[in-house]
Design goal:
- With 341 residues, this protein is an alpha+beta fold.
- Bound molecules: 3,4-dihydroxyphenylalanine.
- 3,4-dihydroxyphenylalanine binds next to strand 8 and strand 9.
- The site of 3,4-dihydroxyphenylalanine (DAH) has 11 residues, from strand 8 and strand 9.
Amino acid sequence: MKAQLEAIRSAALDAINGTQTTAELDAVRVQYLGKKGELTAVLKQMGKLSPEERPVMGQMANEVRAALESAIESQSAVLAEKALADKLAAETLDVTIPGKEVKIGHKHPMYLALDEIKDIFVGMGFTVLDGPEVELATYNFDKLNAEEGHPSRDWSDTFYFDEDSRVMLRSQTSPMQVRAMETMELPIRIIAPGRVYRKDEVDATHSPMFHQVEGMVIDKNVTMADLKGTLNTVVEKLYGEGTKTRFRPHHFPFTEPSCEMDVQCHKCGGVGCPTCKGEGWIELLGAGMVHPKVLEMAGIDPEVYSGWAFGMGLERTAMRRFKIADLRLIFENDVRFLEQF
Ligand code: DAH
């Protein structure tokens, strides 16, 4: 038994000192000192010894256990130190390496133009509304007096979600007029900017997704003069004092009378050039007096209240504001282009 204990002592000490990790050390501890360990197994045989041998072997076994335990303890400290040193080495940081440049973006020119537009209208007491891009035909057409069969309801023009043409991507921001009238207290002064969708091919002036800003005023005694006065003020604030506008008769189902407003060409000053296709004027928005039927459908008495509304293309407004020649530049997000604003 004495030889057995000696063998265990030297094998165990070798094993302990040879461990590289705390996990290995723990495995060695279990191998020798655990319940089913080698030293424990030897101790279990003590009963077979003579009464004289028992205390001698017992003392020796205790010495071996104590030697192993203290070896494990010091090896554990060595391994912990090594683990820390390894970790520090792995996490070395070279503070002299030059940093990576962080590129900070900035607002897109179209949103710069929108911010200006919002500021102008908010300054005149308007509220800015946001609304759904997935819209019901009820709001996009029916309640705006565009009845079944109206050309803009055609499948070739509009993105529908269902066979019955009831759910769609809004083709204009005008449904926000109805939503405002149905939910807000009178009088109403709102603008509602946002995305709209139409089945158009991409070219220098068209995109299947573009932005509009809708505007509407409903109050007592509102006239076409208010419409013209307000929109002229907006145009001068946006494009500079003295910017000329002109109003042409037009047709929209939800306004009566309806008009389109042109702004004098910024390139040629009205003489006629390629930018304005020789016209001297560039169309900016559609507008008109809110149709009595539209007021009635929204539960407003057209005998008491009247209103005016407009819808402007935001890309076109930004293009004029920043003298951008091609609509595609607005959507391509080429940094060399965007950086100029
Ligand atoms: N929704 C029209 C369009 O997309 C623009 C428009 C015209 C809006 C007249 C209006 C308006 O509010 O009164 O072409």
